[in-house]
Amino acid sequence: MTHAARPRVAIVTPYTAAANNGNWHTAARWASFLGRRYRVAIEQSWDGSSCDLLLALHAGRCAESIRRFAEAHPGRPLVVVLTGTDLYRDLAESPEARRSLDLASRLVVLNELGPRRLPPAVRDKTEVILQSARPLPAAPKPAQHLAIAVVGHLRDEKNPQLVWALLDRLPAGLPLRIRHVGSAFDARLEAGAIAAMTDPRYRWLGGRSRARAREVMRRSHLLLHPSSMEGGAQAVIEAVTSHTAVLASGIDGNAGLLGEDYEGLFTENDVDAACELVLRAARQPRFVQRLRRLCERRAPLFTPERERAKLLRLVDNCLLHSARTNR
Asked: Is the pLDDT of residue 76 over 90?
């Protein structure tokens, strides 16, 4: 097939590279996966240019692009990827987000529990594609204290307040260090992070490159991920594939990656439950080792090869079905 004959895929995401968030990284990674087989463009909104398939990374925020593409090309495939804010907030509140479900040829969720949050009428056209991270070798961990990484921008959905509340609950002499990577997009939360650094056990590092954030995770015993809303937490995947154990809120976007029976989950926003797990990890090295082994068993689910194969199969099948239908 010549370059000119390759079908064109438009990936629409409301974010740019400057956002350095999960939505943008998914768009960039998927463009790379698809680029060897298709002509791929990443756009913030569909501008009406010709494409054979539109892939929208947000049902709510891409709703207008989805509507315009569906009206302009009713016979062409339209894939809508549901984010955490879609599944766990917007679908309940936004008619536009719900309309996107109906207009889509196919829906994609990013954790294994995602389909149960969708209306039964659209579950048959829904596929789970777990995101991936390049596996990294295990790194040495500190011997004198429990090293905990927190990776997430300062946003309410990431729930940094729970991390700061933990500092007040944990015994002052407990040997641990918390390093928190994430940019400040909220002045109130930035002030909270700065205030928390009066405790010498906590250090907010601010925004860092993805590689640097991952190195912080890799050299920690645990990733603490207390978020209240996730489509499929990339930080969790990056920790798992770096041989780092995870403590996380038991929301679908975390449990749908780690497994509902994973022993490192705590009830969302439950500081006492999170504190109990951190204390256990600090006092029982075997507990950390067990969590790490459980994470390593999940790691094969998050390989780039697996994610790429599932994405290509979805896009290939959508375009093949469209070609047959429109003959």
From this structure: yes
